[in-house]
Structure formats: structure tokens, C-alpha cells
Design goal:
769 residues, mainly alpha, two-stranded antiparallel sheet, 39 helices, 69% helix, 1% strand, elongated
Length: 769
């Protein structure tokens, strides 16, 4: 349509004289394009005499002006039955600009409070329609999009100018503050502004921020309108949904490209800040929307885990990781200001959340413990023992993949504000400089053990029963280790008398358990901290306690014993019997034979404590036996073998012995079996021990002989390729390789293109010459 044609110009000359007559003609007109033209011409004419109008005429004018936004939809749906699609879309774009100009002129004319509020609402509605048209332009214009690129840009710029005109009118309702009589007109303005914020933020980050700031200022100015009238529920739930959607997109970007653009991270940060600002003003939302609030935090922690798994420190995407680390805790501080939120988090069950959110669930609980340690208000909170039970029942639901994340995922210490302080308390100065990150397991131990300090002695029997039952029934090794660590720490914080009482009580619950059970291993750790006279008393308690005292006392996780030669010489009486014992066990079937497994572990302990008096002949017999044991996949025996290998770091064989050449062959075969075990923990421990031998001891057997032994090379290389960085996974391949760790080791793993410097150094020693 030609808006400068004689036909159009003639309509300008024949406009009705009064507004009432114009509205009547406007409503009767069937050609939408003529309606748009008439409206534009009449606005131009009417505004010239606007100051002279009576109050009733002004009211009628603004009532009519509030209908302008409806024209936008009418035009977009209008079909003039012509076959020239380009001409039709061009005409519609011209109409959109006419509509924007008319509404802007009406907005600028509004002076009184009711006029301003009425036109603000209509203006926001029209802007939403205009921006949404730009958002959907690809589907609307299709192949003609390039042709209309300049026209769409012109429309977009008109909307930006329109938005600037809005600012001056918003000032009228900020200063002075409106009387409550006008709140009924302000409420729909807030609703439409929020909708516009959501849409424009996607299209134009700068304008979106400006609109959100206006929305926040409205909340701050009119907080006395009340939580319901300000529509805080739908606004915050909408923001929560947007944040989750952005997080899901980030996870895909991280998975596919290993990075998140900085500008997208900053948009995400702004949304988080908007949420924090609103929650500061209206914390009642947390109480009224517990589940959605908890779900938001779980998704934020899930996104953080994705960042820590996949993004390296060099990635520009680390900006997102920093944003999450720096903002989740302050946001949670707002949430925890509501006691009902604290209680809900502390007692949240795994059945209430998605099964793939186990580790985010753990992080949420740790955040609650961190907050409680800095708060002295425990009024009406769950009892500590119930909180501890809840956490471990949750960990008991871990999948193998969850367990892998639990022990391997490193998270910054700054994620929880007490982590650095607690780490300092729990480690000696010998550990060197403070790390920037620790594993999720360490985070959990620091916070749960600190919280457990507050459990009263009165509650310990109840908690003890729970610990024993948990260790009996749970298959998660990391969860069992953690509950053992926490229990030991709590006992060490009490008196010796209480520790002794708990040891006696604990032993009475273990009579029906096999010797290699985690519960009995925990009992041995408990007894370790008793002074000698109390240990003797323990032994006198009965056959069960005496039997436990005779079992293997060395836990593989603490490394091998560094006994002096003098103390080990006293073990000479056992040396002559070692070969006989090995012969007795060599051809036995250990599968499901707990008594034989227990005996084998005793023999392997004998090797370990007698390491300094062990001759090469006995070692060769041991290596033959241990190699067979690795083929059985019996975890307890494999760990006992690794304990011996750790002790071997401090052993110096006589290299003049004619049998010395066979030592390297036996060790190579043994290490190769260990490094190809189906159990991930065994493989990881074996590599750790081998690396120490290969790099940090003076034993010639490592760098000069084993390194040249071809049989060992495939096993070590396969393990290094599978877990190339710090004994675990590379940042680049972590997601893919993590799944492999969960399944059983079944042959040579896929080769990785990346190895850490540590792994390369070990491989360089091992390459066959």
C-alpha cells in the first residue's frame, strides 16, 4: 500500500471533527490499513489541540488510545487476498511503524496518574507484540527475511525509542510515590513489564537489563502493595524457569564445545542477581515455594558439577564456573534465613528428587551444614543424629557413577565459606600449601564431621546402631568409608572412656559378620586409638574381641607400615613357615569361602609386617600366589596384596643374589595384573603405588629393570590412558571416560589423545627398549 497515494491523503482531509465521530468511523472501517492511517492522522491533528480539551474528552481520548495495541494483532492477521507476498509484508511493516508512532505520541501526552498508568500498560503490551514479532521474524518472513532486514531494523529502532519514552513516564510514578488508591491500575503495569523483561532480555541484553532495573525499582518503591498484588510468585517462578533453561543450554554447550560464551555467562549472572534482589525484599516466597526453590539450587549445583568436570582453567567458560561458585552461597544464605527451608533441606529424601541429582543433593545438604556452623540459632531444627542419618541414607542410594563423582570430582574450597578453615584444622602443616580445590568426598568429610562434633554422648548409641546397620547393608564403598571417617572423628573428639565404651559396644554387634566386612574394619580403626592398657582390657572382653584383634590390622588406605628393622627382626620366626602357608593356599578355591579369604589376608599381612626380613625366595613365592589372587577378583585379597606392594617401597633386596633377576619379572607380572583389575579402586591404588616406586625411590628395580620389562608396559599404559590426569581423568575427556570407569574393565580401553605430564613421565620409563 502506498501511504502517500492521493487516496490516503484524501482521508487526511476528510477526518471527523470530534473524537466521538472519529471513533464511530474508526470502528466501522473494514480495511485495516485505512484504520491505521486514519488513527495516525487523527492523533497528529488531535494532539495539536490536546491542551484545550475538557477532562471528559481527555479521558475518552486515552480510553481510545489504550486500544491502539490491539491494531498490531489485527494487522498481523489481516489478509488482503493479493498474491504479492512481498507487497503485503511491506505494507504490514509500514503499519507497525504507524502504530508505534501513534502509541508513543499518546504516551508522551499523558499527564495525570490515571492517564499515565493506563497508557503505560497499553504501551508495554504493544512493545511486547513488537519485540515478539522481531523474535519470530525467521518463521514469519522465511526466504524474504533478507529483503526485509532493513525494515525490521527500522521497526526495532522505533521500539528502542519508544522504550526511552517509557522511562520519563515511569518517573512520574516513582516520584512522588502513588497513593494506594491507584494500586489497582499499577498492578497490571507490573505484570506487563515483567512479561516484556523476559522477552527483551533474550533479544537485546542492554534493554533487558534496563527494564529489569525498572521492575526492581517498582518492587522497592511499592513493597507495601504486598507480596500477592506484586505477583512475586509468578515472577520469581518464571525467573527460576528461565535460569534452569539457561543452565540446560549451558550444559549442552559444555558437552559439545567445552566452553560457554562470556556474554551468556554474564546474562546468567544478571538473572541470578535479579532473583537475589527480589528475595531480599520478599523472603516469604521461599516459605511458600519450598520445592521450586530447592529444585533451583539443585540445578545450579548440577551445572557447577558440569563445569568442574569439563571446563579446564584455560577455558573462557570458566567465567561461568566462577559465577556459580561466587553466587550460589550468597543466594542460599537468603534461603536459609527461613527456618522451614533449612529443615526441608536437612531432611530432604532421595525419593523427593530426580535420581540424577544425587551429587547436587549432597552439595545442598553440605551448604546447609556450612550455614548452621556459622549460625547459633538451632531452635526447632532436626536433631543432629537425624540429619547425619538422612545424609548417609541419601548416599546409600548412589549409583556407581555417583560414587565415581563423589571420590573424583574436585570443587573449589571457596564454594563453602568454612571449607578452608576446616581443612586447616583437619590437616597438618606437612601437607604443604593449601589447595584451591578438594574432592567432593573431602568437602563432605569436612562439613559432616564438624557437624557431628555436636552430637551428644547420649545420642551415640543410637548413631552407632545406625552406622553398623549401614555398613552391613550398603554396597557403596565411598559412602561406607565416609561414614567410618565421620564416626572415628566424632569418637576422637570425646573422652577415652567414651571411646572404650563404644569399642566394647561396637564389638558386640559384629559377631555374625565376616572378617573382611567394612564394619569390622571400622572397629579395628576404633581400637587403634585406644591406649595399650585399654586395648588389653578389650582383648579380655571375650573370644569375639580376641579374634578381631588377631585379624589384619593394617588398612590399605593408610599405606604400609614403616616398622624399624629391630621390630621386624622379631618376626623371623614366621619366615620359615611362609612357603608352607603359601603352598597350603595356592590351589584352594577362594570363591565364596570367607574362612579361606580371611586366612589369605592374614598371610599377606605377615608378609607386610615382615618385609625387612623377607628373602627373595619368599618374595617370589608370594608374587606367584598374589598373581593368582588377582585373577580371582576378590577385593579383600587384592587390597592386601597392594598393602604389601606399598611396604615394598622401603625394601632393598640384595642385587647380588642370583635370583634377583627374577624379582623384576615377578613384580612386572604382578603389577600388570593389578593394573588390569576389574575394580577401579584397585587399579587406581596400584598405579599410585607404582608411580611412587618408579619416581621417588632409590630402588634400582624400578627405573633400571621394571622400566625395561615389556610385559608390564601394556597394563600401565592402558591404565594411564584410561586415567591420565592425577590418577583419574583428563578434563577434556572426563564425561566420556567416566562412564567407562563405571563398567567393568574388559580389555584394552580406548586410547586417549591427552596425557598429563605425570603420566607421560611414567610411560617414558616403561617403554620397552
Amino acid at each position: 500500500m502506498d501511504f502517500s497515494s492521493p487516496e490516503v491523503c484524501a482521508r487526511k482531509d476528510n477526518l471527523p471533527q470530534t473524537l466521538t465521530e472519529f471513533i464511530e468511523r474508526f470502528d466501522q472501517e473494514r480495511n485495516l490499513y485505512f484504520k491505521v492511517v486514519d488513527m495516525g492522522f487523527y492523533m497528529e491533528k488531535y494532539l495539536e489541540i490536546f491542551s484545550e480539551l475538557e477532562e471528559s474528552e481527555r479521558a475518552l481520548f486515552f480510553q481510545f488510545a489504550s486500544r491502539i495495541s490491539d491494531l498490531f494483532d489485527d494487522v498481523s492477521r489481516y489478509d488482503i487476498n493479493i498474491r504479492n507476498e512481498t507487497f503485503e509484508k511491506e505494507t504490514k511493516l509500514q503499519c507497525y511503524e504507524f502504530i508505534m508512532d501513534s502509541m508513543k505520541e499518546s504516551l508522551e501526552s499523558a499527564e495525570t496518574i490515571p492517564e499515565v498508568l493506563l497508557i503505560l500498560k497499553s504501551s508495554l503490551i504493544l512493545l511486547y507484540k513488537g519485540y515478539n514479532h522481531c523474535k519470530e521474524c525467521e518463521s514469519i518472513y522465511g526466504d524474504l527475511l533478507q529483503h526485509f532486514k532493513d525494515s525490521l531494523a527500522s521497526l526495532f529502532n522505533k521500539m528502542r525509542e519508544f522504550q526511552e519514552a517509557l522511562d520519563s513516564k515511569f518517573l512520574k510514578i516513582f516520584h512522588p510515590k502513588l497513593h494506594s488508591d491507584w494500586f489497582y491500575l499499577l498492578k497490571p503495569v507490573i505484570c506487563e513489564l515483567n512479561k516484556l523483561c523476559e522477552l527483551v532480555f533474550i533479544l537485546d541484553y542492554g534493554i533487558g537489563i534496563h527494564l529489569y532495573k525498572t521492575l526492581i525499582k517498582l518492587f522497592e518503591t511499592y513493597d507495601n502493595m504486598g507480596y500477592v498484588d506484586l505477583q512475586i510468585d509468578p515472577i520469581l517462578n518464571g525467573l527460576f524457569s528461565e535460569i534452569k533453561d539457561m543452565g540446560d543450554e549451558f550444559k549442552l554447550e559444555i558437552k559439545n564445545t567445552d566452553e560457554v560464551p562470556v556474554h551468556e555467562s554474564r546474562m546468567f549472572l544478571f538473572k541470578l542477581n535479579v532473583v537475589k534482589k527480589i528475595l531480599k525484599m520478599f523472603p516469604i516466597f521461599i516459605k511458600e515455594n519450598l520445592q521450586s526453590t530447592i529444585n533451583l539450587v539443585l540445578h545450579l549445583y548440577e551445572l557447577l558439577i558440569s563445569c568442574c568436570q569439563k571446563l579446564t582453567e584455560e577455558d573462557v567458560g570458566k567465567c561461568l564456573k566462577n559465577i556459580l561458585v561466587e553466587n550460589i552461597s550468597p543466594m542460599l544464605s537468603l534461603f536459609y534465613s527461613e527456618k522451614v527451608f533449612q529443615t526441608s533441606v536437612l531432611l530432604l529424601n532421595s525419593t523427593e528428587i530426580s535420581s540424577n541429582l544425587q551429587m547436587p543433593h549432597l552439595l545442598l545438604k553440605l551448604s546447609a551444614l556450612n550455614f548452621l556452623q556459622t549460625s547459633s540459632d538451632y531452635h526447632k531444627l532436626p536433631e543432629r543424629k537425624d540429619v547425619i542419618k538422612n545424609i548417609f541414607l541419601m548416599l546409600g542410594e548412589n549409583t556407581p557413577r555417583d560414587d565415581m563423582l563423589f571420590v573424583s570430582l574436585k570443587l573449589p574450597l571457596s564454594l563453602f565459606n568454612l571449607s578452608k578453615q576446616l581443612l586447616t584444622l583437619h590437616q597438618s602443616s606437612e601437607h604443604g600449601p593449601e589447595p584451591e580445590s578438594v574432592t567432593l568426598y573431602q568437602h563432605a568429610y569436612l562439613h559432616i564431621s564438624e557437624y557431628a562434633k555436636g552430637i551428644s554422648d547420649y545420642d551415640l548409641p543410637n548413631l552407632e546402631s545406625f552406622v553398623v546397620d549401614f555398613l552391613k547393608s550398603n554396597s557403596s564403598i565411598p559412602a561406607s568409608l565416609l561414614i567410618s571417617d565421620v564416626w572415628i572423628f566424632r569418637l576422637r573428639c570425646g573422652s577415652l572412656e567414651n571411646l572404650f565404651t563404644r569399642c566394647v559396644s561396637f564389638s558386640q554387634k559384629l559377631s555374625d559378620l565376616p572378617s573382611n566386612s567394612t564394619a569390622k574394619l571400622l572397629f579395628k580403626r576404633m581400637v587403634k586409638f585406644l591406649p595399650l592398657h585399654l586395648k588389653e582390657q578389650m582383648t579380655e572382653q571375650g573370644e569375639q574381641t580376641k579374634d578381631l584383634d588377631d585379624q589384619d590390622r593394617i588398612l590399605h588406605r593408610y599405606g604400609a607400615p614403616k616398622l624399624s628393622s629391630a621390630s621386624q627382626n622379631s618376626k623371623n620366626i614366621f619366615s620359615g613357615n611362609i612357603s608352607t602357608l603359601l603352598d597350603e593356599l595356592k590351589r584352594q578355591d577362594f570363591i565364596d569361602n570367607k574362612q579361606l579369604i580371611r586366612r589369605a589376608c592374614h598371610i599377606l599381612e605377615l608378609f607386610t609386617v615382615s618385609i625387612n626380613v623377607l628373602e627373595i625366595q619368599e618374595f617370589l613365592r608370594f608374587a606367584e600366589f598374589a598373581t593368582l589372587m588377582f585373577k580371582t577378583d576378590i577385593y579383600e585379597i587384592q587390597i592386601a596384596v597392594l598393602t604389601f606392594l606399598s611396604a615394598l617401597n622401603f625394601k632393598k633386596f640384595n642385587d647380588k643374589d642370583p635370583l634377583f633377576a627374577k624379582v623384576r619379572s615377578s613384580l612386572a607380572v604382578l603389577y600388570n595384573e593389578a593394573l588390569t583389575s576389574k575394580n577401579y579402586i584397585v587399579r587406581l591404588e596400584a598405579f599410585s603405588i607404582f608411580h611412587i616406586m618408579a619416581q621417588f625411590t632409590e630402588i634400582r628395580i624400578t627405573q633400571e629393570t621394571i622400566a625395561k620389562f615389556p610385559e608390564l608396559y601394556p597394563g600401565v599404559k592402558a591404565h594411564l590412558t584410561e586415567t591420565p590426569q592425577s590418577g583419574f581423568l583428563t578434563s577434556k575427556d572426563k564425561n566420556e571416560l567416566l562412564e567407562k570407569q563405571v563398567s567393568s574393565f574388559d580389555g584394552k580401553p580406548e586410547q586417549s589423545n591427552y596425557l598429563s605430564d605425570q603420566s607421560k613421565s611414567v610411560l617414558s620409563l616403561l617403554k620397552p627398549s
